[in-house]
Known about the structure:
- With 409 residues, the chain is of the alpha/beta class.
- 37% of the residues lie in helices and 24% in strands.
- It is built from 14 helices and 15 strands.
- It has helices spanning 11-14, 24-37, 51-55, 67-70, 79-88, 90-96, 114-128, 146-161, 171-177, 183-206, 215-222, 240-250, 279-293, 396-405, and strands at 18-23, 42-48, 62-64, 103-109, 132-139, 165-170, 226-236, 264-271, 299-306, 314-324, 333-338, 344-347, 354-357, 366-372, 381-383.
- It has a 10-stranded mixed beta sheet, sandwiched between helices. A 3-stranded antiparallel beta sheet has the order 11-14-15, with no helix packed on it.
- Helix 2 (24-37) crosses helix 7, helix 5 (79-88) packs across helix 7 and helix 12 packs parallel to helix 13.
- The longest helix has 24 residues, at 183-206.
Amino acid sequence: MTVTDFIPEGILDNMSNIKIIGVGGCGCNAVTRLYNEGIKDVEYLICNTDRKNLMASPVPDKIQLGSALTSGLGTGMDPEKGRNAALESLEEIKKYIGDNIKVVFITAGMGGGTGTGAAPVIAKAAKEAGLLTLGIVTYPTNNEGLEFLQKAYEGIEELSRYTDSITIVDNQKMYDYYGDLTIQEAYKKADDILSTAVKGISEIITSTGFIGVDLNDVKVVMRDSGMALVGTGRASGENRAREAVEKALTSPLLKDFDLNTAKNLLINIVYNNNSSLLAAEDTLILDLIRESTGGGVIKQKRGLTVDNSLEEGEISVTILATGFKVNNTPPARTRSYSNADTVELIDSTADGSGTITLSTGITGDFQEGSIRELDTRNIFSYGPDCNISDMENETALARRERLRKEGKI
Ligand SMILES: Nc1nc2c(ncn2[C@@H]2O[C@H](COP(=O)(O)OP(=O)(O)OP(=O)(O)O)[C@@H](O)[C@H]2O)c(=O)[nH]1
Ligand SMILES: [Mg+2]
């Protein structure tokens, strides 16, 4: 009898099937943090043009992108250079995503040069190798400037062509939400979301449960699924089922989105074997999630997993929702522009030549307008009556409360 005889079927298949790749400064930081936290059974790779940044990380697998092109420096915020740097290093990248790897996470900060330009090249290589390719990216804060936002937008558009799903972490939301924190602390919150998202998804894949959710389920839910959102909540005590669901639904990635439009849900419930989940709790969790998603979900699967690293009495609920239309899921925001901010944005979705000019010829001190970002049909469409995304009109929890008050649930 060998050691592997003790390992339940399926676990070996899952080992190190997942690679988490950080691209550019932000991506490398995020992956370094995940590496230091040590998620089980995943492999890490960092890629950057910036040699100093690479060398500072303890992650052993690193690729210096485009050493001939950038000589170990950054790209100076030039995505085209980032792209060419990745192309220069493509063969090396391919070596790292070969063999046993089945799922690749690509994480990067959008808006700079390396992450924005190189991440889509790496994603393309992964997708062409047949891997489930998941992007998790940050979106810049307003004060990084419109040009930066535009580059980030284009990077996300490009990346979405080569990924099965993209999760967007909006740094601005962290700024707004944690306004009292220092910049570093607010960034750290965004990083926490990045790592929660990666952890949530990869643990669903690697954990084998009593009722398991496995790689195939994740593939079904995430393959070509547009935008993915994930939230995790932990709780213990008498009301742990309700509290864990509510924490998951109000976790930063999920809280602003109306889950009503999600098509697919994966739910993973984890508990400690010494304080097993009650059937009534299982039912309550699924009922609460159903109330919050409004019945539009087509595919849903729930896994039950034992993990004795949870405290006794504690449970954790992870909700992974996909199938939002990217059109409907911008991290939209309203911003004000003064006349000084006249900016030309190329509407690349029209015929490649449309130009939207903000604030041209407008006299007066200030013009208010809202911009719908990441709308694939209407990039940066602009107008005072332009609606913010429908998604943000009512959050899942708010809708549940409303329906409850109206006696509908
Ligand atoms: N949340 C978070 N965002 C970050 C972090 N580092 C950078 N960013 C954001 O990520 C975006 C891209 O920045 P970088 O990752 O530094 O850029 P890069 O990809 O290295 O590109 P170049 O240096 O221009 O070649 C910017 O919007 C930053 O604000 C980080 O550690 N955490
Ligand atoms: Mg950099």
